[in-house]
Amino acid sequence: MDKKSVTTLTLKQINKHTVYQYIYRQRETSKFQIVQDLNMGLSTVSQNLTTLEKEGLIERNGYFASTGGRKAQIIRIVPDLRIAIGIGILKNMFHLVAVDLYGEAVARETIPLAYEDTPEYYDTFAGEVLHFIEKNEYPTEKISGISIATQGIISPDGSSVTYGAIMGNTRMQLSDFASRLPFPCHLVHDSKAAADLELWNHPKLDSALVFLLNRNLGGAVITNHSVHQGFSMHSGSLEHICVEPDGPVCYCGNRGCLETFCSANALELRSGLSVKEFFLKLRDPDSSGEHLQNIWQDYLRHLAFAIRNLNLLIDCPVILSGYLAPYFLPEDLDRLLGLINEHTPFPLAKDSLLTGTHGQYTPAIGAALFYVKNFLDT
Ligand SMILES: [Zn+2]
């Protein structure tokens, strides 16, 4: 191919990509709108729309209400052209989601399965994933990949877990999954996956501190619009910062880690109730004793202590994410903010304390975004 035709081809691809990205961002648009906003000729836009429609990337369906003259046809991308499967593995279960090109979880399920480092575990796991895909009637070619979020630090090359004290999965390999599933597979630390979802939902954030309030605590640091990984991939492991030197022993071997006060497990241990029961009773004026109020106050106090200290290091909004996040009511956030700002030279603004909305599915959905972004970038 000569230089000129290469350039023409590249330009064509760039135009196609630009038109697709524009429709994606607008969600619903018309041909006229594209011509106007992208400053492209009508025939170029028409050509691109025809190609995109032929390739199944977009659809034209229905009409906008008329503003005089001919009604404009509504143009959208096909959101389920590709489906990414996201998984969040925990000690006794795993969460499974199907995510479309807008990052929406269109199907979700929780499978009870105790983790063990055996071929039988990985066989059962893979069988459940394939069953989920089949049950939702996704043809093989629709699946862009399977992204697995697990507790534990992942090696920089993404091939294995290098620290997995909670689940005992330090020897977990990406190949344990990839060898059993006929799709591309990806392994990610669950805290980082959760932060990816929060970043997706708050695209304007340059920096943030993410507290993953799951059964075990996790965390991540967002800087420059991306999740900070770190030299050996453990940036943001705020679960092991010490909040009370003589506190309870953590699974890491140290005492008084934030994990021992602010994980959902710690809350259950202290109250003797499941998370669901705890909040039901806490919110019920008839059954909520002083005891539960004290436990919750103590939880918020420790969380505030950590937030205040970390916010000195990175001056940015704070996102409460994961399992416990949807349980936070506006009055809890006010109390937490009050505790954070009790004695501090640099108060945190109210609109800088945010909560995630996807609860226990957060790491699974965040993991799936790896393949969603992959598709959108190419
Ligand atoms: Zn610890």
UniProtKB/TrEMBL annotation:
Keywords from the named record: Carbohydrate metabolism, Xylose metabolism
Gene3D superfamilies assigned: 3.30.420.40, Winged helix-like DNA-binding domain superfamily/Winged helix DNA-binding domain
Family label: Belongs to the ROK (NagC/XylR) family.
UniProt source species: Blautia faecicola
UniProt-listed Pfam families: ROK
Keyword ATP-binding among record annotations: no
Name of this chain's protein: ROK family transcriptional regulator
Keyword Lipid biosynthesis: no
GO biological process, one term: D-xylose metabolic process
PANTHER family hit by this protein: BIFUNCTIONAL UDP-N-ACETYLGLUCOSAMINE 2-EPIMERASE_N-ACETYLMANNOSAMINE KINASE, ROK (REPRESSOR, ORF, KINASE) FAMILY
Function: Transcriptional repressor of xylose-utilizing enzymes.
